[in-house]
């Protein structure tokens, strides 16, 4: 691993095949999560951070209360390198390798770190799918399209999570963000220039999983263009059961509603949520680091607003 971090802490959930790494260099903290399905050679998934803390302030997210700074390209790449080293096999031996920019931070608010990281990761691991997962900040998406045209392994996922702008505004208090119609438009343009399908990510909970919700999504996101990820919600506080059967069946029932409307749907229910905080947005160790570094951790817009249950795979 390149020398971007001084300390790496490993937390294992052997039963569920998940390992989490917490990286610290005194000025920033980051976290990556490593999954195998069922072994690293068959399928390896790595979620890595692009910022330390996050300015977006989502109310389900353990990183959403504080922001330290954006990570450098080296700090992003080192998380991936370290995670791959820990698998004990070469990346080229992995039949499927997915690197997801979704653990902590808003990737599209860190173009200076993300773009060179994407280029180097593509060179290092040409077989890796590189998935950018975004809350859709209001930026100029031209550079996102350009880098996605340059690197054919880049995927794009928008965290939608609600079917109305009012509900989404309550969940994602960051003001400079696209509304649902604007997300639909950006995804469509990205599809036109790359030829690939963007994803929208949706966490199913009791208040947003009706037939009307599915209809509204269908009215916004053309299933000929968009694929859907339906996430099982989890709990950001340590010590609380992260998921339960009710939440899992909500996700699978809602995914059926989307399948009926023509979407290609995957249900995301990451392992390790109940034991090591493996669900993105939980970030227990990061929450502790922020408490221990009040001089570096600035309050984000979310600080003090009510907490809600977490969509996994959130950012
Ligand atoms: S879910 Fe993602 S965008 Fe939202 S506060 Fe957490 S890290 Fe930031």
Describe the protein's architecture and organization:
With 315 residues, the chain is of the alpha/beta class. It is 31% helix and 24% strand. The protein contains nine helices and 14 strands. The protein has helices at 73-85, 111-124, 142-150, 165-171, 180-194, 211-220, 245-260, 273-276, 284-292, and strands spanning 7-13, 18-24, 29-36, 43-48, 51-53, 66-70, 96-101, 128-134, 154-159, 199-204, 227-234, 265-268, 298-299, 310-311. Iron/sulfur cluster binds next to loops.
Spell out the key features of this protein.
315 residues; alpha/beta; TIM Barrel; eleven-stranded mixed β-sheet; three-stranded antiparallel β-sheet; 9 helices; 24% strand; disordered C terminus; binds iron/sulfur cluster; transferase; S-adenosyl-L-methionine; iron-sulfur; cytoplasm
């Amino acid at each position: 691993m390149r020398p971007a971090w001084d300390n790496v802490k490993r937390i294992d959930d052997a039963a569920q095949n998940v390992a989490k790494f917490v990286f610290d260099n005194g000025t920033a903290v980051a976290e990556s999560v490593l999954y195998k399905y069922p072994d690293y050679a068959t399928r390896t998934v790595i979620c890595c951070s692009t910022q330390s803390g996050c300015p977006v302030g989502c109310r389900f997210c353990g990183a959403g209360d504080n922001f330290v700074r954006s990570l450098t390209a080296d700090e992003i790449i080192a998380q991936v390198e370290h995670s791959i080293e820990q698998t004990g096999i070469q990346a080229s031996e992995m039949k499927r390798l997915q690197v997801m920019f979704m653990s902590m931070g808003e990737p599209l608010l860190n173009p200076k770190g993300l773009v060179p990281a994407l280029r180097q990761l593509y060179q290092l691991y040409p077989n890796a799918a590189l998935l950018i997962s975004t809350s859709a900040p209001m930026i100029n998406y031209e550079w996102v399209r350009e880098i996605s045209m340059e690197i054919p392994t880049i995927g794009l996922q928008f965290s939608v999570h609600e079917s109305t702008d009012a509900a989404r505004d309550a969940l994602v208090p960051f003001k400079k963000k696209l509304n649902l119609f604007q997300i639909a438009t950006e995804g469509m343009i990205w599809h036109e220039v790359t030829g690939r399908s963007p994803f929208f990510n949706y966490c199913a909970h009791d208040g947003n999983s009706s037939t009307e919700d599915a209809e509204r999504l269908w009215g916004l996101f053309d299933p000929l263009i968009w694929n859907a990820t339906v996430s099982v919600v989890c709990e950001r506080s340590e010590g609380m059961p992260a998921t339960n059967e009710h939440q899992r069946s909500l996700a699978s029932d809602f995914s059926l509603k989307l399948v009926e409307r023509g979407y290609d749907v995957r249900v995301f229910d990451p392992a390790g949520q109940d034991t090591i905080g493996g669900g993105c947005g939980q970030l227990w160790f990061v929450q502790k680091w922020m408490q221990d570094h009040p001089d570096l951790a600035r309050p984000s817009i979310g600080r003090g607003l009510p907490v809600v249950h977490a969509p996994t795979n959130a950012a």
